[in-house]
Amino acid sequence: MTETTAFPPPEEPGDSTAEVLPFPLQKDPAPEIPAPGEVKPGEWEAELPDTDDPEAEGLEEGQSVDPPREVYPPSVSEWMEAKDKARPTVFPDWVKLPDQRTAVRKWAVRHYSTMAGYHAVRLPCVYTPKLLAYSPRGAWRWSTAVGRWVFDAEGKNLRLAAVENEDAGEYLKLSRQRNDRVRLRGIVAALASFVGLAAALTLYVMAPSWLLLLSVAALTTATGLAGAPADRPLIDRAKVTFRKRKLSSDIITRAFVAAGLTKPDQGIAFPRPIGRDGDGWRVVVDLPYGKSFADALAKRKSLASGIDIAATQLFLDPDLSSERRVSMWIADRDPLAVPSGRTPLLGATRVDFWQPFPWGVDERGNPVMASMLWLSLLVGAVPRQGKTFSARTIALAAALDPYVRLILFDGKASPDWRSFTKVAHRIGFGIVPRNGFDPVEHLVAALMELKADVEDRYHRLSELPLHICPEGKLTPEISRNKKLNMPLTLVVIDEVQEYLQHPVHGKTILELLVYLARVAPAVGVSVMNSTQKPDDQACPSALRDQHQARFSLRVGSWQVSDVVMGAGSYSEGLDASRLLKSHKGVGLLKGMSDEAGIVRTYLADGRDADTILTRARTLREDEGTLSGDAAGEVMATRGADAILTDVAAVLGRKEDKVWSETIVDRLAELNPEAYGEWATLEGRAKADQLASALKPYGITTGQVWGKTEGGKGANRRGIERQHIIDAITERNKKRSAE
Q1: Mean pLDDT of the chain
Q2: Distance between CA atoms of residues 323 and 44, nearest Å
Q3: C-beta of residue 267 within 8 angstroms of C-beta of residue 289
Q4: pTM over 0.90
């Protein structure tokens, strides 16, 4: 069972008593193994190779097709373990698990309190007038019924039938029976009337007033109920919403019949009882043979209509044990329209970014933990659906770890990211130069600086001793070592399409982002891009395809959803266009873990974000990790050794050796002001210019074999990629030592 630690409530601004939060870790359950005797005939035959095919199982002609016989199960312990997993639990989850008990208790309180309140409100103004109006009719019905009983009215038809048949004997027999009944019943009625009258007089004379009123109310209620019309009952049915009504197998069967997934005479099977699961119902259904989960998913709206709920309340999940088994969670109300609440980061003084952190909750209210390690994330949505706020929550978690370096650029220059100037190593807003500062050039310089750092990290990690870097990978200890200068880095670019469509630097930014999104996560540099235009023109597939994780809030169509979530996501049931406009901050998450699902992200408004970032800046000042733009350090974009960073930026990852004249042309395109004159030189002069610029760093040019534009091979002067990497590594070591 997954162990979780309760998350403390958000602290109020200014509260300094909060502690470091231990975030829960989620563990995947072990797969179930069927026990002997539980496999039905034919269910596993599809997994056996065709022994008539000599190519089955990769066999060659003449080789035996019979595999060695294996004992199943391999051991008694495994057999017992499989039986334990297959055995149903004694008590359901809502009895054993505290959170499930709490959910069921809340549901019962809501259900019965609603019914009691509904009738209590209508008792004085609706039910009492009805009782008084129906009481005379009820008293008449009672008296009539008593008279018919006393005078044996039910036997009248038999006596009349005997007269019509001229059966004197039968008539005399029935008459004597009737006389005996009337005599006895008359005595009983007279005694009952006398006792009743005496009791009424006693109550009137001796009983207290409250007992007299209670007796009158009881008599009025009884006569009123008796006098109520059959088509208009006295007590109205409590008009409660679906979440207060119980779900039955008849309702589920009706829904599947209405959706065309089964026939009335065929039905469906329920392998486990319908029960409460959080704020909803859990239903597991076995479809008829030949039907699959994909068929149920295609009929999702029809199923919701058959259950008489909104489509946003129905969630379908596949079951790994059978293709025809469907697990349904039916919410009491639309869970996606319920705000997830303020971010728990308000109650944390710091965060360990190496561990999962709280990002939101799923449709059932279970916490969703996010992790940006070793991946890049693409966030897409139409405007005003909470895209920026969702991405900002991740950046706030990174800010609360003083050993995480933040690089942040906002293409729309909104106020949503302004507070990050307190902690961001590199930051910029918009695409329009202001006061002599060009944010786009600053972005290009920051990305080139980061690319050089990434390449340097690969080289340095491979050189570290095994006791420091056991597998050549970044570790928490290495990332927090200031001398090594390889901290976890989060690159956040909001409205990335604004930078990608820049007329001058757009192509360069695209190439740098593609490189970073593809290569950088492996050395602790994660990239998060968000856009409201995920099409090929604004955000090319060359960049989108490099993101391992995708998060899509509401979009306009399933085609756009497929663009954001990745090709084939719609066929898996992931369609962000189904989300409603009211589902703010709600999206589909894929690729961050093994399972894809819905996330209702926590909210951190501008005031909350400023509170968190003020705390984050204090942490960085205390740890001595405040750097870059936040510390007032001006990036030396044109230092004496800027040529090394620029050459590394224009080298392709698979280019080990490149002609010098090709490098010069690329440098001129990258920075015309610095290298524009170099491009006007002839081929040999270009090579000499580059050689003289790289000579102070111990880099020499040599003969490099390559091909001209016409495809002819030639030997020309050029440089080796490894020499550039070695020079940058040596430069960074000197900077770290300083």
Answers
A1: 81
A2: 12
A3: no
A4: no
